[in-house]
Amino acid sequence: MKILRVFPERTSYTPTDSLVAIGMPPLKEFIPPHDEVHVSCVFSWDREFCRFLQHQWQGQTDKPVLFGGVAFGSSATTFTKGLYVKDNIVFTSRGCNNNCPWCIVPKLEGRLKELLIESGNIIQDNNFLQTSKTHQSKVFEMLKGQKAICFKGGLEANLITTDFAEQINGLYYIKGGKKVSRVAELWLACDTDGAIPHFKRAVAALKRTGFTRYKIKCYVLIGDDMDKNEVRLREIYNEGVMPFAQLYQPIDAEKKKEYSTDWKAFHRMWSRPAATRAHMEKGTSFRYFNK
Fold first, then answer.
1. Mean pLDDT, the chain, whole residue set
2. What pTM value is reported for the model?
């Protein structure tokens, strides 16, 4: 079946094949042959626009036009490689056994389920480290044939063990008689002050195998208390990890939460590596820096 996928906007994960469209439909003669149109919605604040897109596309085709995706609670028990994300991005599991109050994953996807392992260099699982050792071993075997490997889902710091760090360190190839790591990035998550001790232990385990700030990144949830958020961001940077701040958005909001100019500036400073490094080298607080 030829499925034409429609997205409200293009992101770094959006597929790029000929059966992908962004936003409003073109004239009928420019729409490629298809059997169905799927309007895909990830964020709840795009739902109204996606419903509008469904109506607009239905006026330009005699084939069924469906809408769905994470924001509409579509089933996430399977994964079809290359359909709604780029071909090199894979999910080897769905769901999560945690119940973090700011995360919608357990509500939409339920408890963790291991999936058929597809080939790809970007592992996007919500919580890869909750999968079984057998499953992880199969994923690592697949990754031995990949380069520029990224664990982008945000590895749960308290589940990172020496064994996992050694498996990561074992992903390499030989070039010019030297070992070259197949791993480009490892992303952790440190969303609360209470997560700092686990985060530090995880970083120590990874650094013992040779990983540096250039490869260890960290998602950092912000948006409640700027001063406290900055303390956590600084701690993460000082551990040799590059923090990437993410402004909190409500789980099920029809409109995206708007933040003040100060919060937006704070977010920019802590989500752009060059700005973060300059800020840390100056040794100033955000409030002093922006007087």
1. 92
2. 0.89
